[in-house]
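I am writing to request your help with a piece of structural work I have in hand. I set the record out below, with my sincere thanks for your time.
___
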Amino acid sequence: MKKQILFLSLLLPAMFSKAQEQPTLENLADKRYERFEFVSAAPIYERIIKEGKEKAQVHYKLGYCYEMMQQYENAINTYRQYMYMSDSADVQLWTRIGDLQKIMKRYEEAKWSYNRYAEKTNNYAAVAKRIAGCDSATIWLADTAEKLSLVNERLLNTDVSDWGVSFNGNKLVFTSDHPIEQNKPMSEKERARKTFGRNGHAFLKMYEADTIPAAQAGDSVRMNIKEFKPGGDTYVYHAGPATFTANGDTVYFTITNEDNNLLYAKAITRSVGTRKLELYYAVKNSSGGWNTPVAFAYNKVKYYSIGHAALAKNGSLLYFASDMPGGYGGTDIWFCRKTAEGKWDKPVNCGAVINTPGQEAFPTIVGDTALYFSSNEHAGLGGLDIFSAVGSDTAWQLPVNLKPPFNSSYDDFYCAIANRTGYLASDREGGLGSDDIYSFILPPVEHLLLVNTVYSRKDSSVLTGAHVAFTCAAVAVDTVCTADTKGSNRFEVHKNNTYVIRASYPGYVSNAIEVSTSGYKPVDTVYAQLYLAPVPPPVIIPTKPKVVPMPDRHFEVGETFVLDKLYYDTDKYNIRPDAARELDKLVAILNKYPTIEIELSSHTDSRGSDEHNMILSQNRAKSAVQYLIKKGIAVTRVVAAGYGETRLTNGCMNGIKCSAKEHQMNRRTEVKILKN
């Protein structure tokens, strides 16, 4: 890359030997920039800046060129110069500067940049995960424990970009922008026709290779590699990655076409960016070849990208990455179910447990229930980190960062595993090219499967769609999900631990149980049942519970008091700063009296539907309890209960006209002593 830039820099004086007006140079650079030809745009911007006549915006564009060409140090310095030159610069750029500093492992500098953004916007929550990632990265990188070995697959990797391994029988299919044409280099004319101006490399293509583990491949071993072209089509632009059904009769793959919309908006990281992505699939014919590829039903290239397919449950469940409307951020992980007629249902977002305001992409599935994906927003070391989460559809345990050596401060993505043999891609230091493929062998892991089902105590019917929170008592972090059509959830758990399962359902009283995994064998499945009782008919409490300053004394079981200053925004359940101060007082009490166990309940007034108020109160109670847990209170000491409008303190029921003050009497958060 540096050689290419140097070559262009040497050419520029000859190209512009005659005196020209500054706008001419800038217009030329801008045209290349707008076509995403960053390699050729950057030297022109550099010349403009050197002549000292540049506008602030030139620094931004040059910084973006550097970022796209992965010249991160230059990008940081140029972006910072732009921020100091421009009074109208978007402060969001400080988060990008911080992201680049994380890649460079300059975590304290990154935290400073994130805090700079937070100070200017008063939005600390927006960068909280990024800052947490800096702190976690410092700890993870300092860990001297023996780690799994990653092996650079030198028989697959080249001096450019190689990534996206998938398994197809005894073959590997991967994506590369290295031109392989009978082991001969392309002529300069061919290279000019087949290169991608964003980075100066050839367009991405799919290749098929023998599966020879790197540990068994000596320097003299040559791997048979050929271009993989399902349906015989040679795509003009990018093609890859691919994924296959278990029997190998269908392949799904990502492409870009000549007719695609050229707008660069929310492009999937590591995709093309200049063109929207499309998903295609091809089916094998009776002669073993591939039929003509068919476009995925939900492609809409004029509006959004769809790509990076992953299959589960014998090909009946398709996961993919997309920036389609209705997501949580830049790109999200979505899924479709195959109908009995063989068609795909409408896309459904995998939910907020997986997706963030940032970028989630490159999903792969292992064993139907383990999702591997990359994210630049969940707390990580820098760039894209690989995460795993157990679950399905919209019901997931919290994603787990795979940490080093799977992750580095650079981009780590597309992790595929079969029979404990895995491959991932990374542009970390020490590789052969911009992205390299690494292999690894996983040690045996002894996990148990915990299956929980939520029932109605009234008639033992299953409660489909029940809200379930699953917590390991030793970790005290909730995994939130929804019960499936059978009222069940499946969790991957470890032996010799205690887990807490909490469930809630509209019209029912929340409940919780503890489940121990001691004494089980790795092959066992642990079954748990959780029964919820229907909410009793509304009752009127004759007098409102006494509002007193939070007591600091011995408590009696059954005693109740109100947290008088715990307020929420209208129809919201996030913990505001003033509410956090009130909860901090409760934390102090619980720390002082460590044997106390409490129920923290939330109540609404009667305005709004009964079901809405029940859900809102449950969410508010859960938010408050989660805050206590994060402050170090054991999960076994606090129970969240949302009663909606079922425990009014006066007669302001549905249909009764009451004053705002009378309604206010019913909106409250109570603490009840369960054990002392």
About this structure: The two ends are 68 Å apart (CA to CA). Confidence is low (pLDDT under 50) at residues 1-22, 182-200, 260-274, 543-548. The first strand starts at residue 151 and ends at 152.
